[in-house]
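Quick log. Single chain, no ligands specified.
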Amino acid sequence: MSDITAMGDAGKAMPVPRGRYSDTETYDYLDFVYCGDASYIAKKLTTGNPPAEDNEYWQLFARGGTLTENSDVSDTTVTFEMAENRANIFSKESLRTIAGKISKMYSDLKAVAFSGRYVELEGRVTVTNNDLATIPGTAWDAVRGAQIRKDLDKLYSDLYTFESANLLKGVCDTTNESLTNFGKCYKCGNFVIVKAYFASMYFTSNATMFVVPEGFRPKTIVEGIIHCKRLTGGQEVNTNICIVSASGNISQQFNNDGTSTIWHGDFFALYKL
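-> predicted structure:
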């Protein structure tokens, strides 16, 4: 039997299925094509003339109906090509067009859209627990917020929690019954204030004036300020250096002209444990 598509007009007695319309194909009389949501039959030989309702080359044969809420399309198949660009879908578009748009959207999704894993997100913020990080785009881990809150609560508590203790006497104390040597230290959090008054002391080089009790002592040597005056002769030293050692000894750096001279004055130091 000869090819039915090669038959002349006189030999054609019924439509010849040619599939979906293509601008590059040549169609003859009674060739049957699909285009959009309709089917058309060629009226005469034509190439590159898209089907349209009752135009010179094509006769509308059937058009698809409108889907309703009761339409059953569960077994309907759709032939489509992926759209070139992402675009929204609109009412009254063909299933072929809608499927092409959805396919484009789906193909453009990154791996994170399917895994949900933050590490696969492009351009993600770098998370760190380093409090000193200065790199733009870096963020603290959530656990740092809890730690900061804990630190602030402790600081607040420390500000309202004071401890105090008397200084212990050093080797500089005299036995003068009419004068008193007294010192006290105060602790607030990690900070310590030491203040002492002395009215009966003899100074020798680096001799211990007072001793700071345990729990208030610095980790390393710190410097304090001393102001004192000789009880006999009136020699006055407005500012001089005293040191507080890690063992708690408070000693002066002022050397007088004798070891038996009595002095009076005060001492102050502030340091962090």
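The longest strand covers residues 191-202.
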